[in-house]
Amino acid sequence: MSKPNLQHASCHSCEVRHTSLFKSLCQEGVKSIDDAKDCTLYKKNEPVFVEGAYPKGVFCIKSGKIKVFTIGESGKEQIIRIAKQGDVVGFRSLFSEEPYRLSATTLEESSICFIKIEDFKEQVNKEPDLLQAVLKELSKESGERAMFIKTMAQKTVRQRLAIILLVLDEIYKDHQINLSREDLANYVGTATETVIRLLKEFKEEEWIEIHGRTIELKNIQSLVQEAEF
């Protein structure tokens, strides 16, 4: 059964475009992308792309969130990044012409626009500002990821959880963090049971409030001090 296509999703009126890689496109470029793209509604926990597959295009998140992850030797997920509304994912492998090194799956119902590889590359070649935005994003993410991995490797599990909660608070912004304990553990890089125990400690210390599945940060300063981040 095919996914529902969102016919009403126009790039011209899309506010998300102004926070994405495509914010610098001229009107002609916007029209070209709008004509070429296919916007689709994904259900929760639905794969967007899979490690090992060859890329066919790029994905721009109109709404929702995606976890980008790899599978370790033990078969356990390690979440590398959580992409949110306005983020473009999947374009890094286009330029290396290699299979995806990571997988991506929706964390919630998400509206995602897909742009074929040839259409995306055509706009990159036509629009110097888009090329600069892509190169800047590649450089920025590479540097941030290297620093993040280095920082996390030097932290205790408790400190890593504090860091991830602060990162997630920025991603979810005005909403409570809504992530399963398993996904949270896979982001922190520890066992689910350990995350549950540490969340209980943070709650007892009045740093967070837990509302069923969701988490609300109550004392960001204490979390920052704990994280030393």
Describe this structure in words.
The chain is of the alpha+beta class and 229 residues long. The protein folds into two domains: 15-140, Sandwich (Jelly Rolls), CATH 2.60.120.10; 155-227, Orthogonal Bundle (Arc Repressor Mutant, subunit A). 42% of the residues lie in helices and 22% in strands. The strands form three sheets. Strands 1-8-3-6 form a four-stranded antiparallel beta sheet. Helix 5 packs across helix 6 (181-188).
Secondary-structure map:
Layout: H1 27-36, E1 38-42, E2 47-49, E3 57-63, E4 66-71, E5 77-83, E6 88-89, H2 92-96, E7 103-106, E8 110-116, H3 117-126, H4 128-153, H5 157-172, E9 177-178, H6 181-188, H7 192-204, E10 208-211, E11 214-217, H8 220-227
Antiparallel strand pairs: 1-8, 2-7, 3-6, 3-8, 4-5, 4-7, 9-11, 10-11
